[in-house]
Amino acid sequence: MTMHARLFGSVLAIGVLLLLPNPAAAKGSTKTQLAGVWKVTSLVVREVETGATRNTFGEKPVGHAVFTRGGRFLWGWVSDGRKAPAGPVPDDAERGALYNTLAFGSGSFRVEGDAVFLRYESSWNQSWTGTERRAEMQVTGKTLVWKSLPFKPLDGDRDVVAITTLERVE
Question: Using CA atoms, how far apart are residues 158 and 111, in angstroms rounded to an integer?
């Protein structure tokens, strides 16, 4: 085979590949797929060392996450079994119980592949405010699976990974 024939074959092969549909482009970027309102359906925390899991927000946590096309986010969830305070103003014990059954955060985000970098401007855990936290997020159909990198939870000293599953609302 001559050099020209090999070159022509290579160019032809590249041309055919360029004409084939790109599945990643067809489904849109992760940032585009994230845009919208999501309802939390499950939140599981798994200990990195032991693999033990727990539903820290109960079997049916309540809450939403919102990601905008412009790169802003807001999320908040609460446990499914929260108790209302006895009166209109919670006492210290009630306030502590309410705090321990919620989480929220807001700020800006950027995407690099499946990695989503969340820059927290506010958070229920003030140590997150002003920081950037990385998460893996994958959208399949109307389901978003959000997996954190290992972190130390407020109620323990062993590293955990939070795996949150959400369903698209809009």
Answer: 28
| pLDDT digit string, tens, across residues 99-132 | 999 999 999 999 998 799 999 999 998 999 999 9
| 3-state DSSP helix/strand/coil % of the chain, to nearest 5 | 20, 40, 35
- Could you give the CA distance from residue 136 to residue 118 in angstroms, rounded to a whole number? 11
Q: Is 3 exposed, middle or buried (0-12, 13-18, 19+ CB in 10 A)?
A: exposed
With a pLDDT cut of 90, the percent of the chain lying above it is: 73
Distance of alpha carbon 145 from alpha carbon 164, whole angstroms:
6
* 90 C-beta neighbours (distance < 10 Å), count: 16
Q: Which of 129, 136, 140 is nearest to 150 (CA)?
A: 136
- Give the residue from 59, 82, 72 showing the smallest Cα distance to 105: 72
- What are 145's strand-pairing partners? 138, 165
127 secondary structure, DSSP code: T
Instruction: Give pLDDT, residue 126.
Output: 92
